[in-house]
Kinesin light chain (Rotaria sordida), 376 residues
Amino acid sequence: MNSLLSTSRDRLIAQCFAESAIDPENDRYRAVLFEIEADTNRTDTRPFADVTHSSYYGGNEDEILFMAGSIFHIVDVQKASEDNAIWTIKLVLCGEQDNQLNEVFTNLKATLADETDMVSVGKILDDMGKREPAKRAYDLSDEHKRNETNGRFGNPMVSYTEGEYYPEIIQTFQKGVVRLTENNGDRKDLVFNYQVIGATLNKLKQYDSALENYSKALDILLDLYGQDHLKVAINYEAIAQIYEKQEKYQLAITSWKECLRVRQQLLPEAHPTIAGTFRNIGDVYNDVDDFDQALAMYEEALKIQLTSLPSNHPSTAKTHLRLAWIYEQIDQFQLALKNYTIAFDMLKLSYPLDHPSLVQIQEDIDNVKKVLNRMS
């Protein structure tokens, strides 16, 4: 939290505040009620205190005030009302040296630049899907101001969102490669340029050229960091995705497994990124109809997601969908129905019932039920 957080011990008072935020004219947003668990015996958290007797509102609100900068762990997210107007988010107050948080921050820093700057901020915002703030962060960065002298050209946030600029992006970043090579520039900048060129060529479906640039980036990364670095894993992931598009599935599996090996070496055992990597490997096995291997990968992904993600997380639902599809292919229809139903129940908390994804899952459920009825 980047501001003081005023809360109440009285649930009814908190619920009244939440209800006052409901806008019947706007169904894009939901009111949220936070349930906070705070251990009064811990000394490593930001301060919080009962300020009821000195509160502006007097003693009626039973007010607890949390200091700015307090860190909370999200335990669960659930709907609190039948009309989905209010949702409950369960939080636990964390210490600043919380082990899980330290691992997250360490791993996040490993995937970003060696120094924190506006480019790093922009990268985080871009990963969150906040494109415009990401562009503004990059435009404010020292990197943007000095790009003409160090060989990194243009705004990397644009390269993934604005297709009409792709040829221009390739040209300007290729100029950066030439300048960096001629001037013995920073090799990390050279990696950056190769990766942006590779990503842009990938968007243009020029897969061989994209692979060539990602391979050059990988060679430099291996020389700079060795095999076991998260930036190396990210590069393997990009290469694997291109091999998939080329239908070179064995090469894709090899790259994905190298990506997985690095991530398992460096990330916490139950990290969601590892789950996503297992699922991606499962997708490739699925593409080549190796259902046993696909099933094994999806089960590994699900095992991690059930321990590391909030219940009813959409990513977990998507893994259940993949499991359901595999079970359907191998005639395990009861298990297929179970997983389709779990996925539907999860996703209906996030999407309206007429959402295309839910409509499709309902059709899948109905089809499996018909098969089971014919078998009975």
In short: Confidence is low (pLDDT under 50) at residues 143-161.
